[in-house]
Amino acid sequence: MANEKRTSKRGIPEVKLLEDVEAYLKREGGISADAGVKRIENSYRTYKIVEQQMLAQKARVALRMPDLKHSLEMLAVIEQKAAENKPLEVTHLLSDQVYCHMTAEKLDTVYLWLGANVMVEFTIEEARKVLKESYDQAAAAVDELNAELDFVKDQITTTEVNMAHVYNYGVQMRKANANAVLSSS
Question: Is 65 exposed, middle or buried (0-12, 13-18, 19+ CB in 10 A)?
Fold first, then answer.
């Protein structure tokens, strides 16, 4: 159990801080400090790639949130007009600088664009439920991605520290070898 590695929810492994560089190099097969730095650099690059992928995913999810919020706000306006038994007058953007003026008398259903060329008719209550669920899922995904990004950033920092420890150990070994050669001459 003491040997188990911790991982994040996405299965990203936790990096342990190297306190004994010599033991690490022996455990890795008696490699040199330079080879140890290269192995840690490979791990570092992997974490940086994961971080970039997660940042891109977070940006994609966060990009949907303002549209969902705006749709919920529009739904509230439609609901208010329906309660007042007033028609809804809308000027809608069709394309760049082309608008369409529209008046809707009957306000008991709305159409939601679900993507992939699919538009579905919903009652106002059903539409609110669908939009709210989508917004809540997007917000939860952003929160989870933020937590995962914090974890990955911690692993990147620990990996950088480990690289510095192994590099400094290599410098100390080279310096000790140089001093040993000088003192034996």
Answer: middle
